[in-house]
What we know:
The complex is a heterotrimer. By secondary structure, chain A is an alpha/beta fold. Chain A has helices at 6-14, 42-55, 87-100, 103-107, 125-141, 150-156, 184-197, 242-247, 311-324, 373-386, 400-403, and strands spanning 32-38, 60-63, 79-80, 118-122, 146-148, 172-176, 180-181, 201-203, 208-213, 219-224, 227-236, 256-265, 275-278, 283-287, 293-299, 332-343, 350-353, 359-363. Chain A contains eleven helices and 18 strands. In chain A, helix 3 crosses helix 10 (373-386). The mean pLDDT of chain A is 95. Chain B is of the alpha+beta class. In chain B, strands 8, 9, 12, 13, 14, 15 and 28 form a seven-stranded mixed beta sheet that branches. Chain B has a seven-stranded mixed beta sheet with strand order 43-44-45-46-42-36-47. A six-stranded antiparallel beta sheet of chain B has the order 49-50-51-48-53-52. In chain B, helix 5 packs parallel to helix 6 and helix 12 (537-545) packs across helix 14 (571-582). Chain C is of the alpha+beta class. Chain C is 21% helix and 31% strand. Chain C contains two helices and six strands, in the order βββαβββα. Chain C has helices at residues 37-45, 92-104; strands spanning 3-6, 11-14, 19-23, 53-59, 67-73, 79-84. Chain C is globular and about 40 Å long. Strand 16 (332-343) of chain A pairs antiparallel with strand 32 of chain B.
Amino acid sequence: MTRYSFLEVAKNAFSAHKNWGRQWRSPEPKPAYDVIIIGAGGHGLATAYYLAKVHGITNVAVLDKGWLGGGNTGRNTTIVRSNYLWEESARLYQHALDLWDGLSQELNYNVMYSQRGVMMLAHTVHDIQVFKRHIHANRLAGVTNEWLSAEEAKEFCPPLNIDKNIRYPVMGAALQRVGGTARHDAVAWGYARGASAMGVDIIQNCAVTGIRRAPTGEVTGVETTRGFIGAKKIGCVAAGNTSVVMAMAGLKLPLESNPLQALVSEPVKPAFPCVVMSNTIHAYISQSDKGELVIGAGTDQFVSYSQAGGLHITTHTLDAICELFPMFRRMRMLRNWGGIVDNTPDRSPIIGLTPVPGLYLNCGWGTGGFKATPGSGHVFAHTIATGAPHPVNAPFSLDRFRTGRLIDEAAAAAVAH
Amino acid sequence: MSAHSQNSTQSTRLAHGGRIDRSRTLQFSFDGKVMQAHPGDTLASALIANGVHLVGRSFKYHRPRGILTAGSEEPNALVGVYRHGDQTPNLRATQVEVYEGLMAISQNRYPSLDFDVGAINDVLSPLFPAGFYYKTFMWPKAFWDKVYEPVIRAAAGLGKPPKLADPDHYANLYAHCDVLVIGSGPAGLAAALSASETGARVILCDEQAEMGGSLLSETGSTIEGLPAADWVAATLATLAQRDNVTLLPRTTAFGYFVQNFIALAERVTDHLAQPDANLPRERMWQVRARQVVIAAGAHERPMVFPENDRPGILLASAGRTYLNRYGAAAGRRVLVTTACDSAWAAAFDLADAGVEVVAIADMRATPPEPLREAAARRGIRVEAACVVTGTSGRLRVSKAMLGRLRNDGSVVSAGDVTCDAILMSSGWTPSVSLYSQSRGKVVWNAEHEAFLPGASVQRERSAGSCRGVNGLAAVLEDGYAAGEQAAEAATGAARKGGRLTATGGEASTGGYLGALPHDRNAGRVKAFVDYQNDVTAKDVQLAVREGMMSIEHIKRYTTTGMATDQGRLSNMNALAIASGALGAPLPQVGLTTFRLPYSPTTFGTFAGSSRGDAFDPVRRTPSHDWVVAKGGVFEDVGQWKRTWYFPQGSEDMHAAVARECRVTRQSVGQFDASTLGKIEVVGKDAAEFLERFYTNPWKGLKPGRCRYAVLLNEAGYIIDDGVVGRLADDRFHVTTTTGGAARVFAMMEDFLQTEWPDLDVWITSTTEQYAVIAVQGPKAREVIAPFVEGIDLSNAAFPHMSVASGRFAGLPCRLFRVSFTGELGFEVNVPARHGAKVWELINAEVVKQGGCVYGTETMHVLRAEKGYIIIGQETDGTVTPDDAGLDWAIGKKKFDFVGKRSLSRPDLVAKGRKQVVGLLPVDPKQMLEEGAQITAEANPAKGTPALGHVTSAYWSEALGRTIALAIVKDGRARHGEVLNVPMPAGAVPVKVVDPVMYDPEGTRLNG
Amino acid sequence: MLLISCPYCGVERPETEFRYGGEAHIARPADPSQLNDEEWAQFLYMRTNTRGLYAERWRHAHGCGRFFNAVRDTVSDKFVCTYKAGEPKPDLDALARASQEKDAR
């Protein structure tokens, strides 16, 4: 693997950039692997990377029905933060945040992790109570999160409208300064490059059509559009399509797949310094390094695999953006797209074992999976390699839906983005 | 060629021709320079008429850029336009209509367009190939946030963002039609004509100011015996007269959603110098169309040759449009270079208008004979098998290098030509964006070398050149037939089978995809594929070299196709270059998804009138106006405005709440509880229904009595509570929380309709039927007694938890004796329309008794002193009845109720659950913060699991100290224990107590 | 925005009049106490979440207020049919075959 650096770019400039090698290999599938990961999104590629890097398991294939990073990884609003309410969640997302810090250097790929701060607006007395609860819980858990008055919020984000006379005035905000954004494609590509260099086969345009099991129940491999590929361990990281894949193994899951939309404006000069989220009036906004305002919209109410949502959802989001930032009313939407998010009843992910021996599951990230990418891959690799969950993901078992030990971020009115 | 007049700035405006109104001259400015134009001009046509081509700087390399197109796909001529003292960025000069006093500025340059320091990037460009930023800026780590990213961010972005709140307003309307026709070129006009002839309701929209599309730039063609432009005028007049036709110019169909739902954005006032303040700036039309005819036309492709981006280099069709439609010549010495026939027409029109055409360089070895003859007649030099291999000129093209294509594909120099403009055409790409948005799958057509619409997925059909139909007569026929078919499909109207005759506008043959061959050092020259994002042919090749095999990866890695034209100009060329680099057939490389909006669409247009108070409906209680007059402070609870507290004089919130609490407990307080949800549950099986729905037993409840009710979700957690009063055997008055009203009602309906349809029960939401005024305090009875008729208010006849119907101040009334304060209390339910009057009547009595009005904050304090929970404060969706100390509210003998089974799940019966307790800070003046965590240790180590958290914290005026409620692990077993609330300034020791902290015997309640 | 045909009102109305109700034909057990924790979790949480034809519940919340069922293709978002609560679940496989045959024609 060529080490990337400014010097390397300069050196290649002399040869008109004709000597750059491939960032990842595109091999034909082998008959069998030690581990097969279904889904070459950020989480799946990170899992493969850490399987090779941390556990020395390099005989790994990552299969994807399309192109790597083509699902939710390339469709989200790239927000990174860890200020979740429950201790279990905060630990999981903080584990990811710790890995984000230094990920560019770890991968030798600039994922542009930008700690510009994530600010969550409170519009009601109830919001204030909820956010303060988060802040106190986070402080105890060692997760940074602080309270700002409306005036302090405006100082941190000058375009913010803190007029007391708007329909839902800003009453304050919770700020996680170490939160921010990262370049979503680069995360997938960086993990793909790193994993590929260690021997992981990334096989694109290879859809899984069946999961083969031995008479004794354990998995033996997958049927794909490119033939049968054997493996004793299979990790499913298929996001919105998880239910479809797991049905092949006869499992029904606590998931519903919904369209989630996002949009960007035309690029403009720096106008917005941080990430602002308002759960109460449904708006999520930041500005990309390219200059586009990146805006997250809500989910449609119904199950859909169409990667397209309704106009009224976007409209509602832009209402809110224009109320909070009235100067953006004249900005224009450049692109609007949708992804398929897999939501669990408690809006927390499922990472762990399944009733089928050898079959592991990582799903249910809903609208907020991007931020967890490194942590999710890291603990899922541990789970697959050792056959038992990492302490960080142990609470996120499928079994919690039987016992009732839910990790209910939704009920706690936490924002799931 | 002669200038229009001696004084005019319009140096390249032709003396005749065009559709502009030459009788009037307008002044506008660009970068402060004042110039002249005519009504009908776009900013782009006016600039060209003024000899100005340099209009912007490119995104990455800051290269000088000129006007490339004459349409919404323009990648270079993005300008800021001033209005209301602020500027709107990134408007396409090709779409901005000139009005008197228009002020526009160029973008992405410093200090000026002519001299831009950012142009150093062009010199350093070898260091900035596609994706260079993924490989660099990683060291030292701290520099990303502090140095690299701020520099990158400042350099990126096109125009400057608006700074002021937008004073304009926007509108939104819904429309239904039989046939929506998108695009008013020849196919669209023909479709609208034939569809509307059947009587079908037709909407015809077009993004341009004037309808007619390519016909407005046509010369020499006739339709139905009329010159094309005259036929357009006649047809529009016909359509305008038809009541069943709506014409929407300046209206872009930007989104195609499922079930033939199409969103249109109409630009209403931007083109007006002095718009009527009552007009919206833009209007969104949400159209549900029975049938859609997409007549979106085709986009001309630029030729990808080295230095193809200098100002003065335009698409051939754009040069022709500026000439024929606006009377503006793109240059004085024009080179036309092409791979197809259509560009020749531009050369001929220019020559006919007196502009020097220095040559037509056609890359085909043998361009069609009739074209060569026509060129020869005009004395135009024709170079076959000839390509442009480079250009020069710093701020405007001044020279082109020509190359001869040899049979082996190599190129040899064929000399230079001096020119001040180059018109180019690689051929035409059918516009399949909207078809693709309709979820149709495009199909590669080898003959057309284009992706064309495949089968219709929705009730739509494409017509004309957007589906590869070529030549005026064929396009008209196709459009006419599409209109008839659409009308027939929509309304069943029989087709008449008419057709339109046309001459001229012959089909264009030829075309080329990808980068042109040349004899230059490929590693050193820049041939632009995507102008706006500065993506060159080399960048696409580099992406492929680095392993990007999917067009989606190539797009994301190089950013080709991600500019504001969404790749309309660049996609096919990029795809062909990628296909060549991959050695794979073009259709195998795939096509990126077409996303909405078709053209960038203003946020305000989406938001429409949803702003200010119209952002979300405001629900007001009957006392609202009275409270406003008295200076009460409101809080938002859902959509409701609820009174938070009533400051008197100089009181702050703390003082006001303390007084309200004190007065209420001493004498009486009055509170507007109208926001509580109310549901009338009626029917033979009403008690059975409630028995199954709520945790409590109901069958034994006597008419005239009420009971506190707890509602669980099926998972066993508390989601709502309220009071249920039994008015008769078959009639209950149910109350819910304010926020839960709609949810509980929907949940009741769900169970009644789908699980227990056998139950004879009817439910009705009565939340807005009643004003509910709570009167609480020792003097409560005295306050209401004067108004009550027909109800004996004595303790014996009407004890705590009673309900009765009667009259109140002469009005029908339901009176509850209930208390959420721990005091003697009543809730007066009267018809909402009389609520304001009753509120004032009661208030007069309250004042007489020395009482006061109170708001939600006081209500919260008083109930906390009594240990009453609030849903959403003590509960958070994870709290069971036992956790909340409400085990007594469960009907244990009941066969079943919603959530019962879940209460025996392992985690819900596990040891160590968090339970509601009271907390008394050891220092009675120390106020706790709601949400603060609770630990055993005073200085817990990071990561210590919390024992619980403070759910409510107040100053208790009655107890003369601070109090709190909390949920704490094993809380009920900890009464008397001292725990800690660790805060940044140090831990606060707190004693765990029973949540009922005031009047635990309940004597006041029964007073 | 979907256009939904309410089987009670007999008219098509925009989606904003309706509330989604999740997967259809999951009947609440007559006696939940008879279910073990695993079975109860299946009832509470597990959903087929089908990619393709899906039987789902809607409520015409801002119309007649009735709950009804629909079969919709979750890939194209096209409704195959809507029907009243209490009517039997259509044979989704047969509907899928019919729709494929229709597309083939």
